[in-house]
Specification:
With 105 residues, the chain is mainly α. It has helices spanning 11-36, 45-71, 86-91, 99-104.
Length: 105
């Protein structure tokens, strides 16, 4: 299996990952909209705040991945500039770091 996911190397895989990221972005945006609706239940406030925080973080990571795709740097580790294996990106499409750099973080 190739580790290169650039659009010129494997356009089908690249477009599948981009579509998956775009779909997940839409899903997380809808979730954020639902979570921001005030239910009026103070007992749910802490849980809702935690879910809001996690959803915002997911949106930021997905947005960053889509930006890297547009810039042409998607699939490169932001720390060491090495190539992130396609297998990692298939599992975690918004990954910005390779496994060794993520482990050191």
């Amino acid at each position: 299996m190739s580790t290169d996911i650039r659009p010129t190397a494997d356009p089908d895989r690249y477009h599948e990952l981009r579509a998956a990221l775009a779909t997940e972005f839409e899903t997380q945006t809808a979730r954020l909209t639902e979570l921001t609706a005030d239910t009026g239940d103070p007992g749910e406030a802490h849980t809702r705040d935690a879910l809001l925080s996690a959803t915002r973080q997911n949106l930021a990571q997905i947005g960053d991945a889509l930006r890297r795709m547009a810039e042409g740097s998607y699939g490169r580790c932001e720390r060491c500039a090495g190539q992130i294996p396609a297998e990692r990106l298939e599992i975690l499409p918004h990954a910005a770091l390779c496994v060794p750099c993520q482990s050191r973080r």
